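Posting this for the archive.
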Amino acid sequence: MTASFLAGGEIPIPVPSSGSDSLSIEYKEFGIRLALSPTVVSRDRISLKVAPEVSELDFSNAVQIAGITVPALKVRRTDTSISLADGESFVISGLINTSNRSAVDKFPGLGDIPVLGALFRQSSVQREETELLMVVTPHLVQPLAANAQLPELPGERLRTYDPSWGRLFFLENGDFDRKSGLSR
């Protein structure tokens, strides 16, 4: 079984139908994707196939489909395998996306005058950096017997917690981690 995570979006791509002038729409995913495929090797070892992928829209290599401009996708991907003991962690970092935008607003005509034109124009630069950091900790799960009592879920006792008006506004400090029933 493979676990998959996508931080990004989907872009609609028009696809011409063969033999007719109609278009259908297909959606292509883009962004940062991570796929993990675990395999239990022994009683305390887990082998993980890790496949990160980063893709972004590329308008400089766009194509025209039925009069519609469709951007290309820049894709960078890799895969590797690691072996961990039950409860060990590993970190995936460096999945970075950087975008820079600049804009100049100027008063028509006056903004083009040398030296004085600077008073009639405004420029702005916007820089955005996004980094995705993931910490993965695989655990081996032991099966329960068919007639075993299921453990209480974290926070289950808070389901019936109903403080009075006075306790809610004057005594409750929002520290619910100390209430019984929550995992520690």
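Residues 97 and 156 are 40 Å apart (CA to CA). The beta strands are 3-16, 23-42, 45-65, 68-77, 80-85, 90-106, 121-136.
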